Amino acid sequence: MASVSLPESAGVVIIGGGVIGASIAFHLIEAGVRDVLVLERDEPASGSSGKPIGGVRAQFSDPLNIRLGQRSLEAWREFGARPGADIGLRSVGYLFLLTDDADVATFGRGVEVQNELGVPSRIITPREALALCPYLDPRTITAAAYSPADGYALPGAAVTGYLRAARRHGATVRTRCAVTAIETDGAAVRAVRTRDGTVRTPAVICAAGAWSGAIGAMAGVDLPVTPLRRQIALTGPLTPPPPRIPFTLDFGSTLPRGFREADGSVTSGSLRVRFNEVEARGIALTRRGRALYDELVGEPAEQWECRFPATERELAVDEHAFFTYEPVLDHPADGRRPPRELAGLLDSGRLTATPIVYEDFLPRSAAGIFQSNLTDTGIQDTSRPGAHYDAHWLSEAIGRPVHDSFDLYAAQQNHSLERARRALGIVEETP
Ligand SMILES: Cc1cc2nc3c(=O)[nH]c(=O)nc-3n(C[C@H](O)[C@H](O)[C@H](O)COP(=O)(O)OP(=O)(O)OC[C@H]3O[C@@H](n4cnc5c(N)ncnc54)[C@H](O)[C@@H]3O)c2cc1C
Q1: Where are the domains of the chain?
Q2: Which of 24, 27, 276 to mutate to test the pocket of ligand 1 (most atoms within 8 A of CB)?
């Protein structure tokens, strides 16, 4: 017996009840399309759409993104009337703090294009920036780029707003109903299958966000989309509540260390980390590994070949990177006691090592948001003036400890290694 009633057929099946699927459903219905069915495997906005702070802006550097941003802002502003829901839009503006002359020039060019297209952005002085955001120290910035039309809204409310309106006008929305297969006939779509039944349809729209690759595969289409788990930190409300400030981003502190590219060139000084977007990821290096990486980053390839570990095994054994260890419990018995040390355990196949992967997608640290004197290795350059906000300040402000990522990775690694050793029967000898 089906747990949800599904129609036997639909004019269009939309897979995914995030902001994209919900918006498509609403716009299709509005355009007069009938029999629209949205299938969501969990709840609306349970994927990426439920996660963001909801920054909305038209401050981009290229005309296409600017126009898209403008259309979105217009849609968000009109949302109360069409489709008709409160999405908590706050037009507080977006404020990019700039410390570098080259960045000021780049943002200046962006502002010119934005103004030509009607975006009311402008370059402002440090004093003007201070008037907008009292947290910042105007001595530490050269200028700022500001657009009062940008801001933030509640992404979950946008999803439910679109879905409710689509439903009101005849769309069917089924939650907790995962699509498990797509039936095709040559290039034509015939039906989608779910555990609750099959729906005949000539049109399927994939709005499955990060999971789109799997949906494409169901129809024999290769979509190069791979999901990646991201990390979100939440705090309780601050007391007293913070003042109303623009969505503020210190552009300078979003620059991480130099990155060595595959061809040996070093990228630094260009924007590698963008707010809320993953720009860099890799194996989490230990302090020792990080120091070696920094030492070698600009060195020729031969130096790398002879000095930097070339395999994950070496990275693990030399303690240059962090790993999660798992015991291999069905390892064939050879009558020998398992080796005690890490290298032996890995080499004998009794232990597997999966790298702990880090992601850079936010400014170097939450406390660094208002720092303007961070070097490109992410530490404070005390020879330059900077705001007094740091990890300690942040910790006091939120009343919770701010953890060091090296310590967290080390704890995860050590815990997995201890558990694996116990599972393999390697008991620490008491002296
Ligand atoms: C931490 C974070 C911060 C962000 N900040 C911002 C921001 O400030 N501003 C901004 O504009 N963007 C931001 N983004 C990006 C934004 O959230 C996404 O671009 C957007 O939500 C994508 O919407 P979507 O509908 O494509 O995907 P999703 O919301 O992920 O929707 C896809 C849906 O498909 C469903 N699904 C998957 N497989 C199946 C299946 N087999 N059958 C049925 N349903 C299925 C999933 O359950 C999911 O609900 C942020 C994202 C994250 C993660």
Answers
A1: 12-51+155-218, 55-152, 251-423
A2: 276
For residue 146, report the phi and psi dihedrals to the nearest 5 degrees: -140, 135
Question: What value does the CA radius of gyration of the chain take, rounded to a whole number of Å?
Answer: 26
| 276 Cα–ligand 1 center, Å | 13
**Residue ranges of the chain with pLDDT lower than 50?**
1-3, 254-257, 268-279, 361-371, 431
For Cα atoms 227, 233, 235, give the angle at the middle one, nearest 5 degrees. Answer: 150
Predicted confidence (pLDDT) per residue in 56-72, tens digit: 999 998 899 999 999 99
Around ligand 1, the residues with Cβ closer than 6 Å are 15-21, 39-42, 46-49, 51-55, 178-179, 207-211, 215, 230, 232, 276
Ligand 1 pocket test, candidate residues 49, 59, 182, most atoms within 8 A of CB = 49
Please give the CATH number for the structural domain made up of 12-51+155-218: 3.50.50.60
User: If you write DSSP's letter for every residue of 240-289 in order, what string do you get?
Assistant: SPPP---EEEETGGG--S-EE-TTS-EE-SS---BTTB--EEEEPBPHHH
- Taking the model in full, what pTM does it have? 0.67
Greatest extent of the chain over all pairs of C-alpha atoms, in Å: 79
Q: How do residues 370-428 score in pLDDT, each as one tens digit? A: 445 555 555 556 676 555 566 777 777 777 787 888 888 999 999 999 999 999 888 66
Q: Does 241 sit behind a cis peptide bond, omega within 30 degrees of 0 on the bond before it?
A: no
pLDDT value of position 398: 74
